[in-house]
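Appendix C reproduces, verbatim, an entry submitted by the partner laboratory led by Prof. M.T., so that reviewers can inspect both the input and the predicted structure.
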Amino acid sequence: MIKGPRPHGRRPIGHRRAMVFFVLGYVVVTILAFWLYLLIVAIKGGHIASPTAISRDPIYLLSEKWYPVLNLLVWTAGSWFYFRRQPRGSNQAKDALHLGTFWLILALPLDLAVWVLIPSPLSLSASSFYLGQFPWIYLTYAAVFASPLVYVATARLRQGQPQQGQVSQTQ
């Protein structure tokens, strides 16, 4: 394959870097989701449900409603780490779209393997995972995909505002 210059000097997203932040984000969000569940158990004075009953546990059902928000926060932070070395003049919106797509493509089969296919005390049936957690699992996937776009949008908004300690041009 002949490699020529990319149009407009663009380079693709750094897949290795994106993979590193994906793995970190996946581990962090999994740990935080479990801690959130434990926190709600402690606040409600309940008990930890057995793995076979967790998909019917009212406390788990309450905690999973917060997982899309938790994922949006974690993956947006991961996007900040990913983009912080990227030059400001680059096309971050297009890169964010590619990064969100890449992370989603990684998350879908990994979730299938980790939570459905690989036998463990936390394994769920495909029906319990994909239908029993509806709509929260799909909102979580939307958060994984959208988080780089959310980061880029908020970074652009912040660029339009003076930094703390700076005087606005309009004053």
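The chain is about 65% helix and 0% strand. Additional entries are available on request from the coordinating office.
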